[in-house]
Write a structure and sequence with these properties.
Blueprint (H helix, E strand, L loop, with lengths): L2 H9 L13 E11 L2 E9 L11 E2 L2 E3 L7 H13 L8 E6 L3 E2 L6 E9 L11 E8 H5 L4 E8 L2 E10 L2 E4 H11 L2
Parallel strand pairs: 1-7
Antiparallel strand pairs: 1-2, 1-4, 2-3, 2-8, 5-7, 6-7, 9-10, 10-11
């Protein structure tokens, strides 16, 4: 197991860090694969959609918990299958555990990342909610050269947010906070 996945598996918890409440909590799938010695994480760019607080942003596959979900792990598995066609069940992936919960700033939603390590290299088949996807090198994301600020226009000015720049991806907000928790460990 690579450095990032190993560090995450040591810190990940088997118990959910928050109570699952359909419509109020969300789960995301942090999907890690190894290609040779390189660890990569699957990132998506959300499609532009009216009413979507995260429209067009870089994210992990994921979404709101549904009534039928018994855990954040189930939510993450379901959403990964729906959004990118990646099956995280059975022997396709190992569930490493849960990261801590993260409060989304744009909506009153608690998000719990579930971490998975792929066994093989499944094909990614994005649905209409996903404009694009990329397997991003965790080592590159962790590099100081990737750190920057993203300016958001607010109240006649601009507010800087920490971000990670990777090729054409500008990763900020909740996804940046989750990634930073992974790569700064």
């Amino acid at each position: 197991m690579g450095r990032f996945a190993e560090s995450l598996s040591v810190r990940a918890k088997r118990e959910q860090p928050a109570r699952l409440v359909p419509g109020k909590t969300a789960g995301v799938a942090v999907i890690i694969r190894e290609i040779g010695l390189e660890e990569q994480v699957l990132l998506i760019r959300r499609a532009e959609r009216e009413g979507d607080a995260w429209s067009g942003q870089v994210a992990f596959p994921g979404g709101m918990a549904s009534v039928g979900d018994k855990s954040f792990e189930e939510t993450a598995r379901r959403e990964a299958m729906e959004e990118v066609g990646v099956d995280l069940s059975g022997g396709a992936a190992a569930f490493l555990g849960y990261m801590r919960d993260f409060k989304a700033h744009t909506r009153d939603v608690m998000v719990v990342p579930s971490v998975f390590k792929l066994v093989g290299s499944p094909e990614v088949n994005p649905n209409k909610e996903v404009a694009a996807y990329e397997w991003a090198s965790l080592a590159e994301l962790a590099g100081e050269a990737s750190r920057s600020s993203y300016l958001i226009p607010r109240s006649g000015g601009q507010i800087p947010f920490p971000c990670i720049v990777h090729h054409t991806l500008v990763i900020w907000g909740l996804t940046e906070r989750i990634l930073s928790s992974i790569i700064r460990s």
